[in-house]
Write a structure and sequence with these properties.
Layout lengths: L17 E10 L9 E13 L4 E9 L4 E11 L4 E8 L10 E6 L2 E10 L2 E10 L7 E7 L7 E10 L2
Antiparallel strand pairs: 1-2, 1-10, 2-3, 3-4, 4-5, 5-6, 6-7, 7-8, 8-9, 9-10
Organism: Pseudoalteromonas luteoviolacea S4054
Protein name: DUF1579 domain-containing protein
Length: 162
């Protein structure tokens, strides 16, 4: 059953609704200065929830050594005009990552959080680029210096499934 949408629901993530093939590139060793990338394929499928004030993205990642299921859960705060994005990894089904929070401007969304990676306090940044809605991209970057410099460690390119 489809959920009725609210008349004033945000449109920021409309570009990602539907089914996608995904090309992933991830740094093999994060925050080490290494430049070796691992490439793998995946699929994602996103549906609206919360009357359009949220969405859920179901992911299947075909990593070199394992197949991983995960979800991105997004909700919109109409008072701040910001989205929160949580990541739920099927390998650790009892914990969601700290949400990144941010908003879109001119088709590019930037979202940030404070997190700990391997015992080190870091800043996390997600960048969604929907300027080409038929081939959107996403990337994740970490910063060990409070956001002065960023290391991009994961990139995704989406191709719509017809």
């Amino acid at each position: 059953m489809l959920q009725a949408l609210e008349h004033n629901e945000p449109k920021d993530f409309d570009f990602i609704i539907g089914d996608w093939q995904v090309k992933h590139r991830r740094l093999k060793d994060i925050l080490s200065g290494a430049q070796e990338w691992i490439e793998f394929d995946g699929q994602s499928s996103t549906v609206k929830t919360l009357g359009g004030f949220g969405n859920v993205e179901d992911n299947h990642l075909h990593m070199p050594n394992e197949s991983v299921r995960a979800k991105a859960i997004r909700s919109y705060n109409s008072q701040t005009n910001e989205w929160s994005i949580w990541w739920l990894d099927g390998r650790n089904p009892t914990a969601m990552d700290t949400p990144v929070v941010g908003q879109f401007s001119n088709g590019v969304g930037r979202f940030y959080a404070d997190e700990v990676y391997n015992g080190v306090p870091i800043k996390v940044r997600f960048v969604w680029d929907s300027t080409n809605p038929e081939m959107p991209t996403w990337q994740q970057a970490f910063s060990k210096d409070g956001g002065e410099t960023w290391e991009v460690n994961w990139k995704m390119e989406f191709t719509r499934v017809q």
